Amino acid sequence: MESATATRIQEHIGDPVSDSPEVGREKLEEIFQDIQSDFRFDHELNGCLNCGICTATCPAAHYYDFSPREIVQLLWTENLEGIYDAMQEKIWACAQCYTCAARCPFDNSPGGLIMLMRETAIKHGMESARNVLRPFSRVMLKLISTGNQLSPDMITADGFADWGPNVSKIDAPLEILRKAIPMPTLNTTKTAWEVNLKTSVELYTIWEETGVLDQLETIDENLFDVITDIMDERRDDLDDWLEEQENDDD
Fold first, then answer.
1. Residue 106 half-sphere exposure toward CB, CA atoms < 13 A
2. What is the pLDDT of residues 200-242, one digit of tens each?
3. Separation of alpha carbons 73 and 83, rounded Å
4. At what angle do helices 197-209 and 212-219 cross, to 10 degrees?
5. Mind listing the domains of the chain with CATH numbers?
């Protein structure tokens, strides 16, 4: 009689039958502490009746292996291994529509809690965060370098193939169309509107002081280096401009 070959799903982080590397208890506690210590945590998690209303009304739950109720239960019971496991994939399925928060009888906000978990995943440089954010590198570069998230020259048929027939509109003469828009767009397709030099440097300083750039370096070091070079150049340009203004006043 042949013996059957059994396989089973990993039941906990570091399961000896799994190829996943072991994650120490200290690391799991550190991750949970980063989530729990955020001032928003106590506002987003008040308790859980396990009623399932959040999951029943969640658009993402209809299409993905995702449940807002599961996320709340993991955090409510401080299931450290379950929290870590959810941060590898499930938290990225949330559309951040906050229907869950609107419907919860306990005034929980599963969407808000997922936002905290996402931020923590970025802080700890998890591979799931790298994979999710990698396609947005161009948008992040455009935002930090120009102050605009999207510009017409970024919209190409190759980049937006899922738009179907509507993508043909991108072949329109954008340069001519931009000149017809009665607002300070600089008549260019490279940016949506003008962000002056001083504002650009101020935005960079905010991202720097609030730790956004530190998190970016954790996720994409190459993009961090490019943005740092751009903003160092912008700061030098602003210093030169201010010096010129002082000389003119004299």
1. 19
2. 899 889 989 988 888 888 888 998 999 999 989 999 999 999 9
3. 10
4. 70
5. 25-124 (1.10.1060.10), 133-244 (no CATH)
